[in-house]
Specification:
The chain is an alpha/beta fold. The chain has a single domain, classed as Glycerol-3-phosphate (1)-acyltransferase (3-Layer(aba) Sandwich). Helices cover 50% and strands 14% of the residues. Strands 1-7-6-2-5-3-4 form a seven-stranded mixed β-sheet, with helices on both faces.
Length: 251
């Protein structure tokens, strides 16, 4: 019994050391790649930034030993531009989406991210969308412009990260954009990331798994802006139902 206890302590120590080293490496990847992203962001509608984001995500997830399992990609067949609406457990969600989905994603992000040196510039010039309630109309027009280029737009509809194994009420921004742009909405479920790197954590739990499931798209053609709340609740219900199923299956 004592030997087993010692082995568990060693295993726990090695896991924490790996997790801490992975965070340091992630910071290094970010510092180096942010320079290239900022230099290339003004050109080719941010195409190089998309590749850099994919590489950045692959490096971080690989260093952490985290695998992303994707389900439902076939549901996007035939869709050029669409709105992805998902829950948000961890900063790892961003890397999981970039790494797993074969699209040039553009995220709707808080203005604080746009203030980060180099990263903020790269995000702005490559077409990511700033959440700004003061200039809401301008943000929506910008998002529609990006969507018309064929970029899927990603919303973390809860507005914050939650690692409590619950799906929280969705905001209606995604529904508003989808209805105005006549874009289909794709509810998406992320499961497992909160246990690996919850909000406020300093180290990541390595060698884990994140499950990403895409639900059936919801068409918005013919919907009016006044129906955005009903559409939001429909997407929220789809994500919550799929999340509960993922948890039951042991994500």
């Amino acid at each position: 019994m004592q030997k087993i206890a010692i082995m568990r302590l060693i295993s726990r120590f090695l896991s924490r050391a790996w997790g801490a080293a992975a965070i340091l490496m992630a910071l290094l990847y970010t510092a180096v790649l942010a320079v290239f992203a900022a230099l290339t962001a003004p050109f080719w509608h941010g195409k190089m930034v998309s590749y850099i984001a994919w590489l950045w995500s692959k490096l971080i997830l690989g260093t952490c030993g985290i695998k992303v399992e994707l389900e439902g990609l076939e549901r996007l067949n035939g869709l050029k531009s669409f709105v992805i609406v998902c829950n948000h457990q961890s900063v790892l969600d961003i890397f999981a989406l970039f790494a797993a989905l074969p699209y040039e994603l553009r995220f709707v992000a808080k203005k604080e991210l746009f203030r980060i040196p180099l990263i903020g510039f790269a995000m702005h010039r490559s077409g990511h969308i700033l959440v700004d309630r003061v200039a809401g109309g301008q943000a929506v027009r910008h998002a529609l412009k990006i969507a018309r280029r064929g970029h899927p737009i990603v919303f973390f509809a809860e507005g914050h990260r939650y690692a409590d194994d619950q799906v929280h009420p969705f905001h209606d921004g995604a529904a508003w954009l989808a209805i105005l742009g006549k874009l289909p909405c794709v509810p998406a479920v992320i499961c497992g990331s909160g246990a690996l790197f919850p909000p406020g954590a300093w180290t990541v739990k390595p060698a884990g798994r994140i499950r990403l499931k895409l639900c059936p798209p919801i068409p918005t053609a013919g919907l009016k802006p006044s129906q955005r709340d009903a559409l939001t609740r429909q997407m929220e219900a789809a994500v919550r139902s799929a999340f509960i199923a993922q948890k039951a299956a042991g994500c």
